[in-house]
Amino acid sequence: MNYYEHTLIARQDTSPSQIKQIQDKYSKIIESNDGNILKFESWGLMHLSYLIKKNKKGNYLHFKIEGNGNTIKELEKNEKLDKNLLRYMTIKVRKLDLETDYFKKNEEVNK
Q1: Which 3 state secondary structure label does DSSP give 56?
Q2: CATH of 2-95, one of 3.40.50.1220, 3.40.50.1760, 2.10.109.10, 3.30.70.60
Q3: In Å, how far from its chain's centre is CA 43?
Q4: What are residue 31's phi and psi, to 5 degrees?
Q5: Which residues contact 93 (CB under 8 A, 6 or more apart)?
Q6: pLDDT per residue over 79-99, tens digit each?
Q7: Neighbouring residues of 76: CB distance < 8 A, sequence distance ≥ 6
Q8: How does pLDDT run across 27-66, given as a tens digit for each residue?
Q9: E strand or H helix at 22, and its extent?
Q10: What confidence category does residue 109 fall into, taking pLDDT thresholds of 50, 70 and 90?
């Protein structure tokens, strides 16, 4: 099994309930294709570097996955068809950092 980091950017006008539905949808796809989600992070609404489909902001979702190539192929096939997503990216890594939360706010980290 390989390790992957997978990031999705959903449209800026996506509601929190729709974000949860997107998370559940792709979690089920990963698990039904012999994958395992080791960690999920919702990074929230952030500014994009440039306009993507007339959007200035996007909701970022990040999965840390253990799986194989077929898992990622099926995941990306479904994401191509999803109108709520602006972009997605998958990176194969040797080792996952499951400890660090890079997008936590300073107040949350200090507690």
Answers
A1: strand
A2: 3.30.70.60
A3: 9
A4: -70, -30
A5: 3, 4, 5
A6: 999 898 999 999 999 988 777
A7: 88, 90
A8: 999 999 988 999 998 888 999 999 998 999 999 999 999 9
A9: helix 16-32
A10: very low
